[in-house]
Amino acid sequence: MWWGKKDVVDTKNNDISIYNAAFHRAVYTQVPYIEFSPDGYILDVNDHLLRMFGYEKQEVIGKHHKELCFPEDVITAEYKKLWSELRQGKSQRGRFIRRSKSNKAVWLEATYFPTIIDGQVVKVAKLASDVTEQQSKLERNQALITALDKSLAVIDFDPEGNVLAANNNFLTCFGYRPDDVISKHHRMFCDSDFYREHPNFWHELTSGEIKQGLFKRIDRHGQQIWLEATYNPIYNHEGKVVKIIKIASNITERVERANLIKEAATKACSIANDTVESSNKGHDVIRKLLNATDNVTLSVGHVSEQISMLNTQSKDIESIISTISGIADQTNLLALNAAIEAARAGDQGRGFAVVADEVRQLAGRTSSSADEIVTVIRKNSDIASKITKTVETVSKNASEGQLQANDIASVIDEIMHDANSVSETVQKLSL
After folding, report:
1. Domain 31-135 in CATH: superfamily?
2. So what's the pLDDT on residue 260?
3. 152-250 — its CATH code?
4. 127-131 long-range Cβ contacts below 8 angstroms, 24+ apart
5. For residues 120 and 316, which has the higher predicted lDDT (pLDDT)?
6. What contacts 26, CB < 8 A, 6 or more positions away?
7. Out of 1, 244, 267, 431, which could bridge 157 as a Cys pair, Cβ 3.0 to 4.6 Å?
8. What is the mean pLDDT of the chain?
9. pTM of the model
């Protein structure tokens, strides 16, 4: 059988059509797919894409593309440019946000490609994949990065410790500009002791060890800065550390305030200890005073007893003197009677009269002496009474002094207890 040239061309065209149809069918059944008119109206859509949006096919055929978009996106210049360029035959590729039937965001990684016949765009096909989950993670990560960048000091180092980048918070914290730190080594922020104490710092980081804690650093002006920071190793797809990101918070004021508090606590502890020592001394003094007061009270008691006994004896003597005075008076009366009788007896009673006169004079002197003794005893009694009252006052004052000393001792005991409590508390704070 002989074949003409036309037959060969028709056969080739037929094979291409079969191939294209098979290719289209494969894409249609395997990949989310939708077709639009050049004006953006939906001509066809497969089940994969319908499931992504939650629609049935009859709900979307004939509807415009904007029905799958959020209203605020449709009015943008980017949206108008998309369809303008598609109608010009220019394909569009990128990540697009669309709206599902339930009004939720659907993120698509998609390609719009126009179908051109005889130089005219007859339809626009779109192949897509759902990247909503990846986009959510990306947005969450980006939000986290943005939040960290706004609130914390962030700086990137290469594995050797050279600065790759630093955010404004870090630069402001240290007083540098970007050109001052880029490509410079981490040691520019440290004092001379840091690398002597941590010689393997960057080797440990590139080995995957995370460093976190409180770090003392030096700013541009040589002032100390205290950072609460974390050095985080970042790995590539091969598991190799390619850089170190440091996230830090400037807590210099907090550390300085804590140091001042610690210093004040140390002073307060010293004062509290001195107070305890002084209270102990005061306590000893009060105890000695109480002992002395007890002795005074005891001595006053003995004096009071002795004076009371003296008063009793004075009364006894006064009673005896009173008896003697009575006897002297009677003797004087008898001597007077004897003198009268002697006078009556004349010469015979003259000797008896002399004796009676002597007895009368003796009785008079005895009575006179007794009166003097009584006067002295009464004066002594008055003095003893005054001494008794004075001693009673002293005893009362001593008792009151003892009570007050006991009160003072109790107060000092409380001061000692409180001072000990303060000392223990302050010692804990100063640790």
Report:
1. PAS domain (3.30.450.20)
2. 85
3. 3.30.450.20
4. 127/27, 127/31, 127/32, 127/33, 128/31, 128/32, 128/33, 128/34, 128/49, 128/52, 129/31, 129/32, 130/32, 130/52, 130/106, 131/95, 131/107
5. 120
6. none
7. 244
8. 83
9. 0.52
